[in-house]
Amino acid sequence: MKRTAPLLIVAALCASAALAHTGVQNPAVKARMHGMEDLARATKTLGRIAKGEAAFEPETVAASLDDIKDHAAAIPGLFETPAQDPKSEARGVIWTNWDDFVERSDALVAAAATARVGGPDDLRAALDRIGGACRSCHENYRE
Q1: Cβ–Cβ < 8 Å for 108, 71
Q2: Residue 61: in which H helix or E strand, if any?
Q3: I need a surface site. Which of 32, 65, 81, 107 has the fewest CB within 10 A?
Q4: SS3 of residue 142 by DSSP
Q5: What pLDDT does 68 receive?
Q6: How far is the C-alpha of 111 from the C-alpha of 37, rounded, in Å?
Q7: Is residue 17 pLDDT above 80, yes or no?
């Protein structure tokens, strides 16, 4: 179970992204959701590899980690405008606690950028750190 816990967390974070987009009217909120969906997609790719559902290919792993790093780096820009929408799961505290929000985004960037993945065990450890960074932000800033 210990090995599957990070993978289950990643899967749960990814699963809700697709459902959240239906009916969003605010373009800034929609852009944020698409950015998060892109981040989730890269994380899901790594999750499938870690679970053995896809082959471990170093190029795919590296590309997915780069995608996570790049999308995480873009998060503050996506949330810079305090836009809301009834479908948004973003809490207003993002904009009143901006520095902490950005630090959590930076932690996700660092988790992806510093991951050294030579095999599936390394990947699981990297996903644990990435999932922890995602969870840390979601617990505080997402409904």
Answers
A1: no
A2: helix 58-79
A3: 81
A4: strand
A5: 98
A6: 18
A7: no
Distances (CA, A) of 35 to 56, 72, 73: 25, 9, 11
**Who's near 77: CB < 8 A, 6+ residues apart?**
none
Mean pLDDT of 130-135: 96
C-alpha distances (whole Å) from 79 to each of 57, 70, 82, 116, 125 are 33, 15, 6, 29, 29
d(CA 131, CA 2): 14
Contact, 7 vs 124, CB < 8 A?
Answer: yes
Helix/strand number for the chain, H first, E second? 6, 0
pLDDT of 34 higher than 80: yes
Single-letter residue type at 102: V
Residue with tokens 């082959």: 55
